[in-house]
Design a protein that fits this description.
This protein is mostly beta strands. It has two domains: 37-354, TolB, C-terminal domain (Neuraminidase); 368-655, TolB, C-terminal domain (Neuraminidase). The protein contains three helices and 49 strands. A five-stranded mixed sheet has the order 48-1-27-26-49, with no helix packed on it. The longest helix is centred in the first third of the chain and has 8 residues, at 8-15. It is elongated, with a radius of gyration of 26 Å.
């Protein structure tokens, strides 16, 4: 599908998207994002000693690919003299993801900035001027093959990820993934004729957040035709030759392992009945995200998590001798290394990791307290705040947020950061009338109805951190997510005091002892409430349509308990959380799994909810618009009462430890080896 032939429905939907009123700012948080500071590095396969950094230390650079030399000949602005090597990769600089080509004019021996240059291959122009996530790029002949999320499939909880190709000389962009299908992790065959992907096919996302229930499909790189499923249950394909590829899956014995699949090509078409798959890496360690060598078929590169290790490392696995050879553990043992790829001559293994302190003094970190994120809506600026549950003061000059443990406040430009409470707290919301008063929930998050959590009001201008707060609830039964009324008289919050999490309203100054009434009642969970600026509505998330089933929809209700309305449902089993009204009350921002998952979760650091994206919708439930596009966990959005324009990113005022992020939590759990079930080698 070329952009000139986009379905009329998509064009109409784009024209009906809501536009922000005047100038608006939405802030949100992304779990762990400021600690990534990824660059792409490489090690020689023969004698790994000193790794080299291939990217410039700008923002976050990841998921690289060494293109074959023949693909570079299609570049119209190819530098002269002929460069030695090339690297295609994803970068998130300038507030959105783009695909760049790095050109190296000297051998890959500690390249300097003067010996390498950059070419932008895929930006917003190639995705029809839409903001999107771009991922897993490859060069095949004269085309760039990559993932993009710029087209809405029009179905709730359906991933927007699809494979596209863009011609290097023609600029023509074509969709290779069929409509209504989500594809991940594309890999192009050595000849460039075939592309393999991890895909749901037509079955769709089922809510999995660890291993996606994908299968391996192969189709023509030229136009997406001849699509055939060759492996059931698998992800992250990588080609060894035109009829052999590797992939990963989590086995019945609990270990992530790499498999191979071989097939026959009959009459120019893949014979699906001929596919033979086998387990390649043994149980006893996790091995995933394989990279095959076309020039040397005796080994593959894999990322591993070994029992007793806290870090993900890159290793070579000899498929002939069944032996592992460690690469990155010898060079940087206490750093996570992700998603290997191999050079065309098999002499180098690339990967991305945090750059840390670099010898050349470039790109020493990505530690930003405020980061601008590109927005495609006119007049709307998006800011990522490095803190959970951000909220703005009524005058828009200050931001409160949570860094577990503790509540903090800073000026809207990121200056003046200070701790205002040592309480272990979550959620923040400012009082509309009393200057410097912030409400929060003191106690453990994600806990049961009976857990002791209380609503407290904190005077952020009082420097005595031991006496600057007042406890407003007395029930001690998971009282959380407070939001004050615009007249400053009341606070709505959720409580589990009845055995179920429902909404209550209490006196804002003296708490429930001075006045309390129940707003909602039922054997379900009503939570994450927010009061509209005109005082007429309270919006909240609820699982009332499927109590206990993990599905949350967005509702709104009048403060007197009348007029209950459902604003949006993500989809069957979906989640719509953390709603917040716009300053004029006409729109609501929230986080949701409406767009499914945008990448295989194991290819990223840890995210509790790798499906989280930020959306905005009109208060009447019309005009849904996706705001963020990435494969990370975006959440807890808030709306500023004052416009903050896209500005230079704000760094943390102190020099802390860099790149301290967690690997996927479910890789820390050693499988039960008592279960001797083998991984099925099903096609």
């Amino acid at each position: 599908m070329e952009f000139s032939t986009l379905p009329l429905l998509l064009i109409i939907n784009f024209l009906l998207l809501p536009l922000p009123h005047a100038l608006d700012t939405i802030s949100f948080t992304t779990l762990g994002r400021s600690s990534y500071a990824f660059d792409i590095f490489a090690l020689p396969t023969a004698a790994p000693s000193q790794e080299i950094r291939l990217t410039f230390g700008d923002s976050v650079n990841f998921n690289g690919h060494f293109p074959p030399p023949q693909s570079i000949s299609f570049l119209s602005d190819r530098p002269e003299p002929d460069p030695i090597a090339h690297l295609v990769y994803v970068t998130e600089r300038n507030g959105s993801s783009q695909i760049f080509l790095n050109v190296f004019r000297s051998a890959l021996q500690l390249p300097t900035d003067s010996s390498r240059s950059e070419i932008l291959l895929i930006g917003e122009h190639e995705t029809n001027a839409r903001i999107s996530m771009k991922d897993r790029p490859s060069l095949a002949g004269g085309d760039v093959i990559y993932i993009s999320t710029h087209q809405d499939p029009g179905k709730p909880r359906s991933s927007w990820t699809a494979v596209y190709s863009t011609g290097l000389t023609t600029g023509l962009t074509r969709r290779l993934t069929p409509p209504g299908i989500a594809d991940y992790s594309p890999a192009v065959s050595p000849s460039g004729a075939l592309t393999a992907v991890a895909s749901y096919g037509e079955k769709g996302w089922t809510g999995d957040v660890e291993e996606l229930a994908t299968d391996i499909y192969v189709f023509s790189t030229r136009d997406g035709s001849g699509r055939v499923k060759i492996v059931e249950h698998g992800g992250w394909p990588s080609w060894a030759d035109e009829s052999t590829l590797y992939f990963h899956r989590r086995c019945g014995d609990g270990w992530w392992s790499v498999f191979s699949a071989s097939f026959d090509i009959v009459g120019g078409k893949i014979d699906a009945a001929s596919v033979v798959s086998r387990r390649v890496t043994p149980p006893g360690l996790h091995a995933f995200t394989p990279a095959a060598s076309v020039a040397n078929k005796s080994f593959i590169a894999v990322a591993t998590r070994r029992p007793g290790s806290d870090y993900r490392h890159i290793e070579l696995y000899d498929v002939v001798s069944d032996k592992f050879y460690e690469l990155t553990r010898h060079v940087s043992p206490s750093t996570h290394h992700l998603n290997p790829f191999i050079s065309p001559d098999s002499g180098w293994v690339g990967y991305h990791k945090c750059r840390g302190e670099t010898n050349d003094g470039v790109g020493k970190g990505n530690d930003l307290v405020i980061e601008n994120v590109r927005s495609e809506l006119p007049g709307l600026s998006l800011l990522r705040v490095d803190g959970s549950f951000p909220s703005y003061s009524p005058d828009g000059e200050r931001i409160a947020y949570v860094q577990f443990p503790g509540v903090y406040v800073m000026n809207r430009d990121g200056s003046g950061i200070r701790e205002v409470s040592k309480l272990y707290a979550f959620a923040t919301c400012w009082d509309w009338k009393r200057k410097g008063v912030v409400y929060t929930s003191a106690g453990p998050d994600f806990s049961s109805e009976s857990t002791k959590v209380d609503i407290v009001s904190v005077n952020v201008d009082d420097e005595d951190l031991t006496h600057n707060y007042k406890t407003l609830t007395k029930g001690g039964a998971n009282n959380a997510f407070p939001s004050p009324s615009p007249d400053g008289k009341w606070v709505v919050f959720r409580s589990g005091r009845s055995g179920h999490k429902n909404l209550y309203i209490m006196d804002a100054l003296n708490g429930e002892e001075a006045g309390l009434y129940r707003l909602t009642e039922g054997p379900w969970s009503d939570t994450m409430s927010n009061w509209s600026p005109d005082g007429e509505w309270i919006v909240f998330a609820s699982d009332r349509e499927n109590p206990g089933g993990g599905s949350f929809e967005m509702f709104k209700i009048h403060p007197n308990g009348t007029g209950l309305q459902k604003v949006i449902q993500s989809g069957t089993g979906g989640r719509t959380n953390h709603p917040w009204f716009s300053p004029d009350g006409k729109q609501i921002v929230f986080t949701s799994d409406y767009a499914g998952v945008s990448a295989e979760p194991i290819s990223n650091p840890h995210h509790y909810q790798p499906y989280g994206e930020i959306f905005v919708i009109n208060a009447d439930g019309s005009g849904l618009q996706r705001l963020t596009h990435n494969s990370f966990e975006d959440g807890t959005p808030t709306w500023s009462p004052k416009y903050i324009g896209p500005t230079t990113n704000v760094e943390w005022p102190y020099s802390g430890s860099k790149c301290q992020f967690e690997d996927c939590h479910w890789l820390n759990i050693a499988p039960n080896q008592a279960s001797k079930r083998q991984c099925a080698a099903a096609k």
